[in-house]
From TrEMBL:
Keyword match Protein transport: no
Gene Ontology MF terms: DNA binding
Name of the protein in its database record: Response regulator transcription factor
Native species: Streptomyces beijiangensis
Highest taxon listed in the record's lineage: Bacteria
InterPro entries: CheY-like_superfamily, NreC/VraR/RcsB-like_REC, Sig_transdc_resp-reg_C-effctor, Sig_transdc_resp-reg_receiver, Tscrpt_reg_LuxR_C, WalR-like
Amino acid sequence: MTIRVLIVDDQMMVREGFSVLLNAMPDIEVVGEAVDGRGAVEQVAALRPDVVLMDIRMPELNGIEATREIVAADAEAKVLVLTTFDLDEYVYQALRAGASGFLLKDASARQLAEGVRVVASGEALLAPTVTKRLITEFAKLSDTPRRGSLSQVEELTERETEVLVLIAQGLSNAEIASRLVVAESTIKTHVSRILVKLGLRDRTQAAVFAYETGLVRPG
């Protein structure tokens, strides 16, 4: 199945460069481009892409607000944020707004394509060690309201809570299955139930939730 991608960046060279790299992949197709967040929201509604490569700093409507609107519209598209450096508070804000992960703009063609595939599949955190470091760094500094509360965590079973903690620690489904000595399909079922119970879109949001509710402590 071909992964449909929308590229959003106010720099033409970035859009064209990413478009060439991604269209060279047999399983990825760039279906559109946008130069700002407002255009991104409109293009997502019109084109229904699977993945949106979203720059953060743009005129009209920035990537954080655009991500929030796309998620609020219940779009199926997964947002992959583009940034120039990993420890960026704006990236953290984008993750809180609903982005599924982030990618450095100097990523290689292989990393770019793999990042798109990972986010499209929803199976694993993108660059889990970096994502974990970003979340832990800014979760303890954030003065914004927490995404959820421990009362929501109480709705989870003991095993689901255990899986949520391991997700927040950056483990993939396969790694969690190995750690808990169960089938990977069982972990996938647990992850799906966790997301439904907590009202979250994907694993990245689950990790942010775990840190912001204090279920997992930064460290």
